[in-house]
Amino acid sequence: MVGAIVPTQTDAGFDDFIDGYFPLAVSISHLMQRRGLNFARLTLTHAPIMHIADLHPDAPVPLNITAGRAGMIDQMVLMVQAAGQTCRLQGHASWRWLDGSEAGRTLDPQTRLAEPAYLQGDAMRADEMPPFDGGVIQRV
Questions:
Q1: Share of the chain above pLDDT 70, in %
Q2: Could you tell me which residues are beta bridge partners of residue 14?
Q3: Disulfide: which of 87, 94, 106, 120 matches 82 by Cβ 3.0-4.6 Å?
């Protein structure tokens, strides 16, 4: 979009999309860089996911998922701290695997979105961020 204004760290709430097909941590890192954010709280709902254990983080996603598993994030709230091209994620989520398998207590940040996902976010200041306790996404 020509003439679009990119929000800065001082902007509060925003709506955006993150890329699918990349590991979740990478897609969120792209968002943080695009918006010029160092700290944010993000909320995703109804986002399809896939996890293919041996797929390298920069490998293309297969057209047909014949290995691994597919699922759905029902809701996720993340606190994000970005530094350059990397970011730390911590938060709570509810998700499920469509094959009915056990989802575990934490979501691997290398899990990929199966398609782009809509999210809502709030830019944060460093003093507004909770302490990072190991940087995990826990099941609620």
A1: 87
A2: 121
A3: 87
Going by C-alpha positions, the residue among 136, 134, 82, 85 that lies closest to residue 111 is 136
Provide the greatest CA pair distance for the chain. Answer: 47
Average pLDDT over residues 13-33: 92
Q: How far apart are CA 41 and CA 128, in angstroms?
A: 10
Average pLDDT for the chain: 86
The first and second tokens of residue 40, run together, are 């944010």
Strands in 19-85 per DSSP E: 39-51, 69-83
Q: Which amino acid is at 89?
A: L
* Coil vs helix vs strand at 27: helix
Q: To 5 degrees, how large is the angle CA 52–CA 136–CA 82?
A: 95
| Strand ranges for 4-115 from DSSP E | 13-18, 39-51, 69-83, 86-97, 106-107, 112-113
**Domain ranges for the chain:** 24-57+68-139
Closest listed residue to residue 94, CA positions, set 81, 86, 103 = 103
CA–CA distances in Å: residue 121 to residues 7, 46, 84: 12, 15, 19
Query: Hey, what are 21's tokens?
Result: 């097909």
